[in-house]
Amino acid sequence: SLSAGLDLPGRFLFATLTLMTLIAILVFIEEAVYIYRKIPSSKRSIIIWINAAAPVISTTSCIGMWVPRSTMFTDFTAGIFFSIVIHKFLMMMIKECGGQKVLLRRFENGRFTISTGPCCCCCPCLPHVPITRQTLFWLKLGTFQFAVCRPVLIFLSIVLWTNGDYILYNLSPKGPALWISCFIGALTLFALWAVAIMFRKVRILLKCKNIVPKFALYQFIVILNHLQTTIINMFATQKIIPCAPPLSPTARGSYISQQLLIMEMFLITVISRVVYRRKYHDLELPECVAEEPEDKKQTP
């Protein structure tokens, strides 16, 4: 078994990482209870979903660390969950503005800047798009397609893997892993692009609701869960990470990635508790804010 093959420092490391995962789960449960009691029901489920991203990734990484053969399933589970969280984060920004109707009234003559990352940051010549119900629909569709298509592609990957046709580290053009990974990567970029467009427009309005640190935490999860894991897997595939018997380079790379994710998601869980632990109130309508000084002047 895995635990029998570990030396004393290895057992201490595994025990410490497992304890960090348990603490992250307890912190999330406590935060979920607070959110359920203090936050309006219209935002409750969305914020709980977003806060659950780091603990879920930490838990799946911990399971994959103890049970190496489950790594593919745990990675896929974390990937499916986070694809839903990306859509939830976009919806949270709309909810924090008071909903779609209030957002459209607030930015009635405004425009979206689509020349932003990760897709079009190098294209400043792109036109600004008017903020209408239709453009909001396309932004929501940009994240919703990712929440729907990625689970379908992951299910297809598992079916091919059980038949021996899908090999995660085989990036040959003849194999399905390369094409499925590229397609998922393209869907990911479009989803992140939609969130970035919305954030760029509402970040000033929602500054009082800590939207900047919330977006930073969301970006850290994206980078660590996707980019960091991809880089480590590439190093392992190219055997830059040496083997350490009985672990092959790919298995050792998977262990390194999982252990790093547990520590990083633990920190993000604790920081999220600080950022999200406050009461939420709907923003005042723009008309009310504009008319308030006039009402005060008319009051004797």
UniProtKB/TrEMBL annotation:
<keyword id="KW-1133">Transmembrane helix</keyword>
<feature type="transmembrane region" description="Helical">
    <location>
        <begin position="12"/>
        <end position="34"/>
    </location>
</feature>
<feature type="transmembrane region" description="Helical">
    <location>
        <begin position="73"/>
        <end position="91"/>
    </location>
</feature>
<dbReference type="Pfam" id="PF03619">
    <property type="entry name" value="Solute_trans_a"/>
</dbReference>
<feature type="transmembrane region" description="Helical">
    <location>
        <begin position="141"/>
        <end position="162"/>
    </location>
</feature>
<feature type="transmembrane region" description="Helical">
    <location>
        <begin position="256"/>
        <end position="276"/>
    </location>
</feature>
<feature type="transmembrane region" description="Helical">
    <location>
        <begin position="177"/>
        <end position="199"/>
    </location>
</feature>
<feature type="transmembrane region" description="Helical">
    <location>
        <begin position="211"/>
        <end position="236"/>
    </location>
</feature>
<dbReference type="GO" id="GO:0016020">
    <property type="term" value="C:membrane"/>
</dbReference>
<dbReference type="InterPro" id="IPR005178">
    <property type="entry name" value="Ostalpha/TMEM184C"/>
</dbReference>
<keyword id="KW-0812">Transmembrane</keyword>
<protein>
    <submittedName>
        <fullName>OSTA protein</fullName>
    </submittedName>
</protein>
<feature type="transmembrane region" description="Helical">
    <location>
        <begin position="46"/>
        <end position="67"/>
    </location>
</feature>
<keyword id="KW-0472">Membrane</keyword>
